[in-house]
């Protein structure tokens, strides 16, 4: 068998997305070809995507083999646990602390928890820490200010690189340098409207 | 001559202090990211897009354009000195350029690359200036059906020329179009696919999509690869060309410029395709083709001229028709739309400062790049010694602040995270993100033209075949698709894009 696993997954992904799209598109009136309603173009596009996904899927049985990267048991189980933990934290967030009571705070806290949990598995470590770092930025920015948010972002992001984990002082140096640089570019030069220090607003 | 008057106006715009400054900043950043492997122009431009919002539109586009063609200059430096292409477009430069460096002619190779790029850039600037207004007048006679077919053609060709499977690329284009439809329907005001999230009523944030799929996903992918950076062992040596080298490089530069100019205009074309096209051509027609593989100067001069010419002429479809030819141009469309300018044939008339100022600044930028690259080569080589582990935190924080500052809303940063995960997944499945970006930009425009065309034709689909312009666009698209399904051509493309 020469199955192209990447193409099987791609085809299924395209079909899945299109199916969800078509289902959501049920809310929109189609109109006629002459007077197209809001649902007409999405309908055309998603059906086309289903067809293409189908072709990719069928072709996958002839142009392989191209296996997916190996998942360890830990990779798979941590992904499931992360989704569960993330969802729970997301729902619990409003009751935890009023600090996260800002825009999309519960979403962010849930995502942060999920990404941090998934980072426990080696296969997800890089993606998990980088994404967690960005979520931390969002969570801290409005009430914690730019400096705190950036420090947290750099701190979490540096966990992705083994050499940084071994040298916390180096990370501190990078943090100080980047904080100064960002302050100079974004606050001094570009003057973006954002709180700089904790509890400024 | 009208063009001369317009160009003079363009130079007066481009020579203003702030425009000069930002052209220089663009050229410097472009060279830097060109030198550094792992950061490409698409990621950089999406990263810097938000910073340009505060600037006037002309200044913003001048800087972003500078990054794109600056990257073509910088990419060749590492290709020649370290056998490491900084950009995809300089992959072929490693073939002859690195050999030249091994033969002790590194300086000559660098000089050839910079000079032929400069020559090609100058010619391409003239081509853009001359053909822009001409094409614009043609474009004004386009009806909605013609526009729809033209965009369809652009999408097909961008998918056909993308790396990897054509069908998967078309799938990504289609998904991109679908993402472009999220938000308020222009004609009825109905919210589509917004899940009741107010931030989505204006559509998915362009910056979040580009930054996530290119910027952040690339960080993760770069960190996955073990860092392979050899230390410079070769001496740069004299930058002067011998008379013999100069004589050999000249015809190749001319041919490369021609190839690049033509391939750059094609939708889906661009720097990478044309540098390879030029290399293939040189290997067939050059007088010294027997020397190829041993450090032939023709193999540096041609492709370097071609990629720079193409980087500039790929602005033609954008400036005249409002259609992006590649992912970088899709970012430019995004930048223009956020600035409140609808790219299209009316832009030359309505925004003469932008159009002519950009053209003039391209030439000025090329002069700057010549200075930045040749005498300051040592500085760029030093930049290579900055390890990626120090670079990625900086890229990351710039992405965060950038995504936030577009609307001063953290929702955009969360969207960036989601697109980063999606982009990472696409990479693992060999789904190309670039066609998706182009589809995303063109999606809303296509819907509008499709609706208008069908309204005018009273629901008759045949309108797309009855209008000659539209019919010929569709025919070209069909031919391109069929051609790519032929096994021989497909192999040629794979060879071309993998270098």
Automatic annotation (TrEMBL), chain A:
<feature type="transmembrane region" description="Helical">
    <location>
        <begin position="7"/>
        <end position="24"/>
    </location>
</feature>
<keyword id="KW-1133">Transmembrane helix</keyword>
<feature type="transmembrane region" description="Helical">
    <location>
        <begin position="103"/>
        <end position="121"/>
    </location>
</feature>
<feature type="transmembrane region" description="Helical">
    <location>
        <begin position="76"/>
        <end position="97"/>
    </location>
</feature>
<feature type="transmembrane region" description="Helical">
    <location>
        <begin position="128"/>
        <end position="157"/>
    </location>
</feature>
<protein>
    <recommendedName>
        <fullName>Tripartite tricarboxylate transporter TctB family protein</fullName>
    </recommendedName>
</protein>
<feature type="transmembrane region" description="Helical">
    <location>
        <begin position="169"/>
        <end position="187"/>
    </location>
</feature>
<keyword id="KW-0812">Transmembrane</keyword>
<keyword id="KW-0472">Membrane</keyword>
<feature type="transmembrane region" description="Helical">
    <location>
        <begin position="44"/>
        <end position="64"/>
    </location>
</feature>
From TrEMBL, chain B:
<keyword id="KW-0472">Membrane</keyword>
<feature type="transmembrane region" description="Helical">
    <location>
        <begin position="203"/>
        <end position="223"/>
    </location>
</feature>
<feature type="transmembrane region" description="Helical">
    <location>
        <begin position="107"/>
        <end position="130"/>
    </location>
</feature>
<keyword id="KW-0812">Transmembrane</keyword>
<feature type="transmembrane region" description="Helical">
    <location>
        <begin position="469"/>
        <end position="489"/>
    </location>
</feature>
<keyword id="KW-1133">Transmembrane helix</keyword>
<feature type="transmembrane region" description="Helical">
    <location>
        <begin position="20"/>
        <end position="40"/>
    </location>
</feature>
<feature type="domain" description="DUF112">
    <location>
        <begin position="20"/>
        <end position="437"/>
    </location>
</feature>
<feature type="transmembrane region" description="Helical">
    <location>
        <begin position="150"/>
        <end position="182"/>
    </location>
</feature>
<feature type="transmembrane region" description="Helical">
    <location>
        <begin position="258"/>
        <end position="279"/>
    </location>
</feature>
<dbReference type="Pfam" id="PF01970">
    <property type="entry name" value="TctA"/>
</dbReference>
<dbReference type="InterPro" id="IPR002823">
    <property type="entry name" value="DUF112_TM"/>
</dbReference>
<feature type="transmembrane region" description="Helical">
    <location>
        <begin position="354"/>
        <end position="374"/>
    </location>
</feature>
<feature type="transmembrane region" description="Helical">
    <location>
        <begin position="386"/>
        <end position="406"/>
    </location>
</feature>
<feature type="transmembrane region" description="Helical">
    <location>
        <begin position="47"/>
        <end position="71"/>
    </location>
</feature>
<protein>
    <submittedName>
        <fullName>TctA family transporter</fullName>
    </submittedName>
</protein>
<feature type="transmembrane region" description="Helical">
    <location>
        <begin position="318"/>
        <end position="342"/>
    </location>
</feature>
């Amino acid at each position: 068998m020469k199955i192209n696993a990447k193409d099987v997954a791609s085809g299924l992904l395209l079909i899945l997305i299109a199916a969800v799209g078509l289902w959501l598109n049920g809310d929109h009136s189609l109109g006629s070809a002459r007077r197209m309603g809001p649902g007409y173009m999405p309908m055309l596009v998603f059906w086309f995507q289903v067809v293409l996904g189908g072709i990719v899927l069928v072709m996958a049985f002839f142009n392989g083999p191209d296996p997916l990267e190996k998942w360890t048991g830990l990779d798979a189980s941590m992904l499931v646990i992360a989704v569960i933990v993330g969802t729970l934290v997301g729902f619990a967030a409003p009751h935890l602390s009023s600090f996260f009571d800002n825009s999309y705070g519960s979403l962010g806290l849930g995502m942060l928890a999920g990404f941090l949990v998934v980072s426990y598995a080696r296969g997800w470590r890089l993606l998990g820490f980088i994404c967690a770092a960005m979520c931390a930025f969002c969570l801290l920015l409005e009430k914690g200010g730019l400096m705190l948010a950036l420090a947290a972002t750099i701190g979490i992001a540096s966990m992705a690189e083994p050499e940084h984990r071994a040298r916390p002082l180096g990370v501190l140096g990078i943090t100080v340098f980047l904080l100064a640089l960002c302050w100079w570019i974004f606050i001094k030069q570009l003057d973006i409207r954002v709180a700089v220090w904790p509890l400024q607003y | 001559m009208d063009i001369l008057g317009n160009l003079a106006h363009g130079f007066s715009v481009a020579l203003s202090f702030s425009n000069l400054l930002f052209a220089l900043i663009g050229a410097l950043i472009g060279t830097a990211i060109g030198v550094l492997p792992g950061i490409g122009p698409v990621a950089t431009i999406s990263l810097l897009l938000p910073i340009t919002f505060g600037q006037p539109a002309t200044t913003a586009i001048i800087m972003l354009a500078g990054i794109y063609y600056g990257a073509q200059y910088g990419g060749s430096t590492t290709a020649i000195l370290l056998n490491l292409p900084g950009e995809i477009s300089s992959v072929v430069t490693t073939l002859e350029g690195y050999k030249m460096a091994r033969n002790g002619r590194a300086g000559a190779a660098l000089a050839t690359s910079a000079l032929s790029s400069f020559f090609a850039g100058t010619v391409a600037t003239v081509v853009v200036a001359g053909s822009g207004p001409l094409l614009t007048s043609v474009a004004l006679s386009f009806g909605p059906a013609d526009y729809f077919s033209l965009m369809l053609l652009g999408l097909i060709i961008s998918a056909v020329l993308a790396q990897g499977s054509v069908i998967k690329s078309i799938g990504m284009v289609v998904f991109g179009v679908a993402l472009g439809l999220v938000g308020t329907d222009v004609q009825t005001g109905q919210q589509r696919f917004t899940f009741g999230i107010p931030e989505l009523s204006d559509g998915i944030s362009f910056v979040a999509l580009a930054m996530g799929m290119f910027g952040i996903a690339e960080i993760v992918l770069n960190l996955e690869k073990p860092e392979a950076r050899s230390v410079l062992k070769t001496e740069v040596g004299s930058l002067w060309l011998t008379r013999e080298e100069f004589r050999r490089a000249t015809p190749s530069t001319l041919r490369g410029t021609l190839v690049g100019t033509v391939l750059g205009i094609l939708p889906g074309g661009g720097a990478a395709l044309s540098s390879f096209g030029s290399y293939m051509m040189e290997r067939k027609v050059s007088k010294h083709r027997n020397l190829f593989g041993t450090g032939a100067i023709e193999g540096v001069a041609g492709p370097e001229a071609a990629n720079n010419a193409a980087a500039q002429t790929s602005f033609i479809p954008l400036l005249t028709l409002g259609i992006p030819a590649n992912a970088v141009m899709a970012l430019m469309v995004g930048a223009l739309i956020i600035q409140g300018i609808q790219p299209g044939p009316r832009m030359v008339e309505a925004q003469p400062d932008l159009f002519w100022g950009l053209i003039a600044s391209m030439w000025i930028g090329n002069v700057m790049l010549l200075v930045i690259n040749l005498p300051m080569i040592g500085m760029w080589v030093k930049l290579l010694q900055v390890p990626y582990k120090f670079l990625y935190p900086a890229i990351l924080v710039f992405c965060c602040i950038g995504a936030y500052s577009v609307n001063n809303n953290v929702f955009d940063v969360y969207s960036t995270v989601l697109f980063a995960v999606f982009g990472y997944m696409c990479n693992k499945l060999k789904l190309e993100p670039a066609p998706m970006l182009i589809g995303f930009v063109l999606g809303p425009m296509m819907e509008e033209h499709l609706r208008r065309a069908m309204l005018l034709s009273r629901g008759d689909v045949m309108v797309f075949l009855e209008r000659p312009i539209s019919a010929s666009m569709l025919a070209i698209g069909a031919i391109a698709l069929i051609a790519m399904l032929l096994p021989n051509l497909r192999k040629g493309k794979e060879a071309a894009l993998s270098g």
